[in-house]
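User: Structure please.
Assistant: Input sequence and predicted structure:
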Amino acid sequence: MALSSIGSRIRERRRSFKLTQRDVAQVVGVSPSAVTQWEQDATIPSGESLLSLSKVLDCPPEWIMTGKDIPPAKEPGYLSANQFNVKEVPIISWVQAGQWTDSCPFGISEFPTIKSADNTVFATVKVSDCAFALKIKGESMTSTSGPLSIPDGSIVIVDPEYGDIHDVVGRIVVAQLGRTGEATIKKLVADGSIYYLMPLNPAFKTIEVNEDCRLIGVVKQITINF
């Protein structure tokens, strides 16, 4: 069968590996609807998305775009995330996050009830086996002026293996507040020997880090779906 369009090449190559559109979307870092649009020739993958897509489909980017440099035939079979240097992590609740580092000494494989197709995401950065993901709630991390903004509904990937508190000053962190037991996400800043959890939205209050506050992990990746 002639694969005369970009969309047809993407679709047939994906099917040859028995990958779903959702599988491809998660690894590439786009929404499933974006993959659908590519396969329908409504839009064209470009930039980092094209490079990631070529890795997922194990073919040159040039073949996707032009049909030249035909990739070798592959035996049908599901490709694991590990082949793309990514890690599948669970999306957990903010209450669970406060308990996660105590209950996850061996990684997600110890928690099969958490890991399912509907509540995991792929991290495309290096993270530990105990990494997890959270869905942002509220507007405290929606910046009104700065270059970094984490709007409501975003997914953040958090790694509890972050070293010492000094190592993550200036980074986005997740911390547990003793008075509620629930986790919060803020930017960690320091003023001398005093540490603060600062929201990116100035309309919200900065929180001083004290003995009732415990750092859970550092944010390694942010995913925003449109």
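Residues 87-223 form a domain with the Umud Fragment, subunit A fold (CATH 2.10.109.10).
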